[in-house]
Amino acid sequence: MDNTPMILVIDDDSAVRTSLSFMLKRAGYEVKAVSGPREAMDVVRSEAPRLMLMDMNFSLSTSGEEGLTLLKQVKIFRPDTPVILMTAWGSIQLAVQGMQAGAFDFITKPWNNAALLQRIETALELSRPQEETAEGEAPRLDRSPIIGRSKGLTEVLNTVARIAPTNASVLITGESGTGKELIAEAIHRNSRRAKQPFVKVNLGGLSQSLFESEMFGHKKGAFTDAIADRKGRFETAHQGTIFLDEIGDLELSCQVKLLRVLQDQTFEPLGDSRPRKVDVRVVSATNADLARMVSERTFREDLFYRINLITVKLPALRERRDDIPLLVRHFADRQAEANGLPRTEFSADALELLSRLPYPGNIRELKNLVERTILVCGKSLLQARDFEDQRLQTDDPGKHAAHASLAGLTLDEIERRTILQTLERYNGNISQVALSLGISRAALYRRLDKFNIPY
């Protein structure tokens, strides 16, 4: 039986149909090419293409209405068939509307053949039926050093195992301290690019003036302090993975520059007018609500769709409390090894207390508490009171939370009290409060809104 995927190309330009058909056949695909919506629907109904490449405009129209109508019809008849849209850069908003209507991805004309073939391969891989796996197991995944067996974490790792071998762009979301960088590293480590560079960039720490030089590099003499040629992060990550952390903090003026390199896989170093090609997989992360930022026009909608072909949402530590004893043991063993200390044990009441604290700073906060208590107390067996005393004695903003939790308060009540006490301690200084709680300012603002705390 022939399992060669059949790709349906829909474009009213005969030159486009010819060039795409030639390229796809050389790549080993079966191809059907048609000029308009009516012929396309005939093929969709009768032959079940595995993937569709579809222009958004027909009959010299630039409105895209025919393309959107065709896309909606296709999704009714073949909801699981991935559709990659083709549009000009100037009408990229049409592609965004198509993504909202269910398209898998979009490219701009003129396209890069290698990048287009990568996207086709990714779409076909991700649209295959998911392989059966043992319940509660992430298939064929190197998960080190990710600790935990909770349902929420297992679901995340199963997703990572499925998407890692593809070239799909991935957006990792979750609160500060939930381990987004570890998941990004796991995606790279389990990908076909594992032997190539993994380049991390904190976009929240890049000003507008530094963005182009840092990301795309510069030539000697491009500006006053450019005393030598310098590679940018994208060129350094060539054939590997670039991890764009805190992408929600990127200034709007820089977002369009980032979109262009993600779309075309080309860039120009400062001071050099010659475009350079780059082959990178993009993994992004944020603790911000990008969908809300799009609606508020503080994040570009087209960039949003480009970076989140796949979204991986990490659970907060309070949503995976079964993992806390494992994490405590891991942090303690690593602390002992790093400092030449004997193994530390934990009483049942200590683990019970640690398993129900609020942790607004998530795993990062738990790690700091465990390591600090081990070093300060110097005991071979730690009790609940050791952690309570440490929280009280170190100006920890959550120092009353341990006692409040013992009084039967809910986790939300504990967290609200902790935030109020910290606001009072730092006279409402949001930056100091966020730093003390171990969370970002954006995460703190979300909690203030959640608990109706004025600021």
Q: Count every beta strand, where a strand is a DSSP E run of 2 or more residues.
A: 16
Please state the structural category: alpha/beta
Q: Give the overall pLDDT as a whole number.
A: 86
Shape: elongated
Oligomeric grouping of the chains: single chain
The largest beta-sheet arranges its strands as: 2-1-3-4-5
In percent, how helical is the residue content? 40-55%
Report low-confidence residues grouped into runs of 5 or more: 131-138, 394-407
Largest sheet: 5 strands, parallel
Indicate the CATH class of the largest domain.
Alpha Beta
> What gyration radius follows from the Cα positions, in whole Å?
26 Å
Number of domain units: 3
| Count of DSSP-assigned helices | 20
Second CATH tier, the architecture of the largest domain:
3-Layer(aba) Sandwich
Using the coordinates shown, work out and report the CATH topology of the largest domain: Rossmann fold
What name goes with the CATH superfamily of the largest domain? P-loop containing nucleotide triphosphate hydrolases
Relative strand content: 5-15%
